[in-house]
Amino acid sequence: MYSNSVEIRVRYGETDKMGYLYYGNYAQYYEVGRVEAIRSLGLSYKELEDRGIMMPVLDMQSTFVKPAYYDDVLKVTTTITELPKVRAFFSYEITNANNDIINYGKTTLIFFDWERRKPCRAPEELVEKLSPFFI
Amino acid sequence: MYSNSVEIRVRYGETDKMGYLYYGNYAQYYEVGRVEAIRSLGLSYKELEDRGIMMPVLDMQSTFVKPAYYDDVLKVTTTITELPKVRAFFSYEITNANNDIINYGKTTLIFFDWERRKPCRAPEELVEKLSPFFI
Amino acid sequence: MYSNSVEIRVRYGETDKMGYLYYGNYAQYYEVGRVEAIRSLGLSYKELEDRGIMMPVLDMQSTFVKPAYYDDVLKVTTTITELPKVRAFFSYEITNANNDIINYGKTTLIFFDWERRKPCRAPEELVEKLSPFFI
Amino acid sequence: MYSNSVEIRVRYGETDKMGYLYYGNYAQYYEVGRVEAIRSLGLSYKELEDRGIMMPVLDMQSTFVKPAYYDDVLKVTTTITELPKVRAFFSYEITNANNDIINYGKTTLIFFDWERRKPCRAPEELVEKLSPFFI
Predict the structure, then answer these.
(1) What ipTM describes this predicted complex?
(2) Is residue C6 within 8 Å of C29, Cβ to Cβ?
(3) Is the pTM of this model over 0.95?
(4) Which of D10, D17, D70 has the highest number of chain B CBs within 10 A, making it the mutation to test binding with B?
């Protein structure tokens, strides 16, 4: 397993009239979590896309344990749970400043060759970087 | 079971650089789906909130089958799968103009008394309206 | 001048903790307004893009007169104020159910040939459709 | 005048099908800019709200000079251009990693006493903190 954490501060425009971080905005926090997890490995999701490998999301699950509020600094911990082949599996845990878990979730993404319009294997260098964590 | 459908056209600002409806925006389409399902019963979610009953989301699952694109008119079919007690269960199916299923999902929400800061039973009139569909 | 109106219902996810439609979301309402204004002329902005003509926004001005609230049905009236050459000028007026003006604004967009990476003239058929309104 | 800068990385979900940071999302970047400007003075906008002083936006102007792209790290420089009385005036300049100005804008906000439902004077401590910069 490989894990990485990143902090995100809740923006005003991300809250809703209940005063909570709107439930639909967690998906974007997961996105930031996994992009930064990839960056922490010394790679860049943007460069993967520039080379024609996209990673659309196949499924998402999310459990909302406690609300997050405006201006909260949340810690998003992203874990890559399996060595990726054609799919990548990420899980997420979000905690607030009190260290309470407020949300956890997971997503499955697929490596997709944009030119050839079909799924492909995970890029070699990503597998190499991750291999030491999956022995 | 009780079902209702509503159409939503994909906005430019809801797409991402892949040209797809961004995966994080489906949660908002689910929200519109369930609010309109409640309205189709002759009730108003807004009025529930005005009376102090909020419905935060406890969990969400979403499966992305095919992409949706800018300007697509999507049909969101929302189904209330159980007669609500303290929780409400909604499932969603989203189809495009070709009648392809592009996404399906479900959410659990809880009825929450805002003043007393605790869960409560589903409002009487909602249960009454739904009862004929759960015999 | 050419005008067209469209109704948009405020979504929960578009509100903020003040209970207002978040100020940043008006830009998306303007977008819907101008896309539907183009559609009302018998054209499609999506088809313009499919043919390689994009319309990025050059500037925007917005005045927030009164708040809009969750579930409000807003009327967005979009006016094309000049016959477009290389730029298109849209103005917007948003009213609520009481017919109060809650917001007005304007945007300048440019016609942009995506392949050649430079500005271009407004498509012939758009100018033709609009000409009768600018005599 | 008082200025402060903050960096924001463009999220995938903030781009649109053109591959640009969607024009409607700049308002949220301005929001982050002014909130961090207030924080850099040793104050907290959240605490102002907790004490019943809200700051709704009255008007916004935005000029889009160049596009911003996915994963760009943008620098948002926020300037408080006048010592606030009942209104606060912010201007913004956004630059990319090449130090190109990609966007500039300004907003007017009003101090609003939420309980009494009317405009009020800027909080004493904000005026004190800012005074040295407006001599």
Answers:
(1) 0.96
(2) no
(3) yes
(4) D17
